[in-house]
Amino acid sequence: MKSTREAVECLLSRWPQRDGRALAAAKRTCLQALDGKIKTEKARRAFIKAAEEAHLSVRSQ
């Protein structure tokens, strides 16, 4: 993902799982980052945890 907006779109519409603790946290955290309530780095970490929960590989840039 190149942006928080892309991460949210992926989490909401293209994610391979429908539930999961890390997924719920990532959705909430990324939406808060879009609203400017938290830093994007926190959203990035939450997204990575959700990806690990879904057994997806994540490449670091």
Task: Describe the secondary-structure layout.
Elements: H1 4-14, H2 21-34, H3 40-53
Helix pairs in contact: 1-2, 2-3
Short recap of the structure:
The protein has 61 residues and is mainly alpha-helical. The chain has three helices and no strands.
Q: How much helical structure, as a percent, in the residues?
A: 55-70%
Question: N- to C-terminal separation?
Answer: 10 Å
Cα-atom Rg, whole angstroms?
Answer: 10 Å
Largest sheet: none
- Assign the structural class, choosing from mainly alpha, mainly beta, alpha/beta, alpha+beta, or little secondary structure: mainly alpha
The overall average pLDDT, rounded, is: 94
Point out poorly predicted stretches.
Answer: none
Strand percentage: under 5%
* Overall form: globular
What order do the helices and strands follow? HHH
DSSP E strands, number: 0
Number of helices: 3
Feature tags:
single chain, 61 residues, mainly alpha
Please, could you describe this protein's structure?
There is one protein chain. This protein has about 60 residues and is mainly alpha-helical. It is about 65% helix and about 0% strand. It is built from three helices and no strands. Helix 1 runs antiparallel to helix 2 and helix 2 packs antiparallel against helix 3.
